[in-house]
Amino acid sequence: MTHNFSCSIPLSAPIELLDFLNTEGSLTAMLEAKAGQPLRVERRFEGYRLLSLSQKKQLGMQRQALNRPLLAWVRETQLYGNEVQPWVQAQSIFPLVSLKGSARRLQQLKGTPIGYVLFKRCRTLPNQRLIFHTLEGWQRQTRYDWYGRKLLISETFLPAFLSAKC
Description:
Strand order of the largest sheet: 1-2-3-6-5-4
Largest sheet: 6 strands, antiparallel
Order of helices and strands: HHEHEEHEEEH
Number of helices: 5
Number of strands: 6
Distance between the termini: 34 Å
Radius of gyration: 15 Å
């Protein structure tokens, strides 16, 4: 399995966050191990959206495809470990062209962590990743190649994650 892993981590990223930012496996599994229990997923938005130019570029689209409207299924969630405050804010983008066959189940996740589906058969997936700091916290944006389908998942580690006592 080929991994095209590109990552840029500024030196100021907290040391306790580096393994979570860099894991090529299931972030869900790592978060659950830290929490000592299953994650609680709170959906904030789930539905169809047109993708921005930036999102289309992140998905690897080029040339004329960048100028065409692209509809995707978007899921925005907050992930809770063992605290009252969310640990991670996540956004999953599934272009409709990727939601064929068994991948249609990605539209039916409800409160299921996406890691349960993506990493069910493989411990790692081919990906490209960017890591940077936002106003909300440290974020990783990962474009996965899941059985030939491109998916874009962004995870922002919120302050409650770093202050969690586990």
